[in-house]
Design brief:
This protein has a single domain, classed as TIM Barrel, CATH 3.20.20. Helix 1 crosses helix 2, helix 6 packs parallel to helix 7 and helix 9 crosses helix 10. Strand 5, helix 7 and strand 6 form a beta-alpha-beta unit. By secondary structure, it is an alpha/beta fold. It contains 12 helices and 6 strands. Strands 1-2-3-4-5-6 form a 6-stranded parallel sheet.
Length: 283
């Protein structure tokens, strides 16, 4: 799951709260951690802060769960530089979001990831999230990349079920496909996805993990019962902004401060009240 970056009230990185959050997640049966994904507010972190957070996460998790590190961007050479700069020896893999804003062609996306795979010290997990990047990576491009050495899988967050099914139908046997959409994770796993990199698991780790495990055991009746209770939570998480929703929930759980860096702002008062009420009824 994709971990938020806790901040203090004065917006410094809050390492004590990060330690508490990591312990909360691991103790509630999360199977792996993604640090420095976009849910970690990477666009507003300095390079030095990212490095420090990665090092802290490795040290604090201490091998209890695998750690995946997010390293992405819209300048291929700069991402290559980051792959050489960040401490990745302890990482299980690198999650790399496709380039944003410059909207490369499908050939550009292919060449971008191919260049990263050539230099990355760890296997690359592609991340297709057109709602944020402005450009969808097609199933055809994903499947071309699946044949490239050192590309291990994809976090697929297009929301396009037909595209997801095409990837699942034609992928190599050893190519990992995980959901990047909490609200679609159940039907996507029913189609054959291997799991999910979740935002909701920050806030409801025990329940979300139980839902995923039930899916992977083909127990979709129990999975649906759990997921039905989570649907309103998914809606609240993403109603205004991610990770403002997740941070509001974690604040109400007493784990972190309700602090985000501009241009993101905390949830509106009305929505925060709904999140608080939902959490009370949910627990």
């Amino acid at each position: 799951m994709a971990v938020v970056t806790p901040f203090t009230a004065d917006l410094a990185v809050d390492y004590a709260a990060l330690a508490q959050l990591l312990d909360f997640l691991i103790s509630n049966d999360l199977q792996y951690i993604v640090t420095m994904g976009t849910t970690g507010e990477t666009p507003v972190l300095t390079r030095e802060e990212k490095k420090s957070i990665i090092e802290f996460t490795f040290k604090h998790t201490n091998g209890r769960v695998p750690v995946v590190v997010g390293v992405g961007g819209n300048c291929t050479q700069e991402v290559i530089n980051d792959l050489q700069y960040f401490p990745l020896a302890g990482a299980a893999a690198v999650l790399s979001a496709s380039p944003y804003y410059n909207k490369p062609s499908q050939e550009g996306l292919y060449e971008h990831y191919k260049a990263l795979a050539l230099v990355s010290p760890k296997p690359i997990i592609l991340y297709n999230v057109p709602g944020r990047t402005g450009k969808n990576m097609t199933a055809e491009t994903t499947l071309r990349l699946a044949a490239v050495d050192n590309i291990a899988g994809i976090k697929e967050a297009s929301g396009d079920m037909a595209q997801c099914m095409e990837i699942l139908r034609d992928r190599p046997a050893d190519f990992l496909v995980v959901s990047g959409d909490d609200a679609l994770a159940l039907p996507q796993m029913a189609c054959g996805m291997d799991g999910v990199i979740s935002v909701a698991a920050n806030c409801f780790p025990k329940q979300f993990s139980a839902m995923v495990k039930a899916c992977l055991q083909n127990n979709y009746g129990d999975a649906k019962k759990i997921n039905d209770g989570l649907i309103a939570g998914y809606e609240l998480l993403f109603a205004e902004n991610n990770p403002a929703g997740a941070k509001a929930f974690l604040y109400e759980l007493g784990i972190i401060e309700n602090a985000v860096r501009l241009p993101v702002v905390p949830l509106s008062e009305a929505l925060h009240h709904k999140a608080k009420s939902y959490l009370k009824s949910f627990n």
